[in-house]
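User: Show me a protein chain along with its predicted structure.
Assistant: Here is one chain, sequence first, then structure tokens.
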Amino acid sequence: MQIKEQKILEIKKMLETPDISETQRYDINVRLYDQYKTYISDSAIHFAKENLQIAYKLDDASSINKSKLSLASLYTIAGMYIESMDLLKSIDRKKIPEQLLLNYYDTYKLLYSSYSSNNLYTNIYHEKSNLYRDSLLNVLDTASNHYKIVYSEKLLDQNKLEESKQILQNLLDKSESEDHERAVLAYAIANVYKKESNLEQQRVYYTISAICDIKNAIKENASLQALAIVLYETGDIENAYRCIKSSMEDAMFCNARLRTFEISKIFPIIDTAYQERVTKQKEELQFFLILVSVLSLFLIVAVIYVYLQMKRVARIRKELYITNVKLNELNTDLQENNIQLNNLNIELSEANRIKETYIGHFLDLCSMYISKLEKYQNTLNKKAVEKKLDELYKMLKSHDMIDNELKELYDNFDNIFLHLYPNFVEDFNSLLLEEERFVLKPNELLNTELRIFALVRLGIVDSSKIASFLHYSANTIYNYRTRVRNKAAVPRDEFESLVTKIGVKFTKKS
């Protein structure tokens, strides 16, 4: 910017030359216009207007048209589309010299292109811009960079991305200086990558374009704005904010109303994201400051505590030695007590085993008693059949006595067993799948399946013995046991082993 201002100052000094002609003033104003048009648009417009007045004074048709085209281009950049259109319409196309046709078509193309991006009827004005672009291509030298840049833009609109990219990349590779043309080429390549949704390459080429614009003090630029959007989309909020802020400052400095309007649409979004990020960072910083303060306080307390503890170490060591001696003595006593306790546990286990054995014998006796009653009843029935005692035959033919005795036996067994193992049903169900667990009827202590495994818990694992006690066939008992094992939530081969361990803790405590 200092270099740019120095150049402008030197050119302005030329206007102070005494007795300069209008033609000389016109040429000096053209040079000032060229310096100002991408730097400060208002100043450029001022000198373009002044040149238009000079051209009218000189009655030079070529200079008039040239000044109108320059002013129309500036009006377009400033967003003054109506004024730009009025100037262009005032130019008679048929009277334009050949050398001004390029500017004529280029200015029209720029006007409709800019207007289409800020108008509801986008397609109409975009098509008009394309028509003037085609006219421009017809008069441009096909070997010129200007032609290749405009043609690549046409290829881009036709989605011929690789062809467009190749033309622009070749031109960029050949460019040696970081001038405005290099900025335009890099920006155009970035636009191709934008159509390909390649954010990384967009960032690269928009950055190249922005660097060239900055080095040439070009304030009417689109590269920084485009770069800010790409950085925002890639999550680099801090740099996106720096770029969009710089772009806004440039647009306001240049007074490029169109660029300011475009930036104003994206600036609030990036600014909001940046402010949220800054707020979050402040909150995190505040949190860490508080955390460091708290930790520092704890550290001070810890140092004081350690110092006090160190003073007590000597005394504690002496007390510790005495305590260790006493602990050794206590350990010896404890070992002796543990041996005695183990002996008592062995005795208790033996007592439990004897208790279970007696229960087994008791059940065997009950079963035997019922069997004898049954045998006795059969004998009486036989006598009744022989018509020795008719009335006795009628009484003893009934099985009510046997059924009642069996029911009483089972009830006694259930009560005695559940007295020894009160949590047997819950513990047994815990070994089964949840949907297969037994739900007892009201006033029912054990059912047949639970009774079978209650006998297993008592150590009676022989199916024939269980069958004898429960008055079922051995095959029926086997089927019951198999069916329950199939419902187990634990491995089947470990099921009955786990059943025999039910109530171990309870029996040890008792």
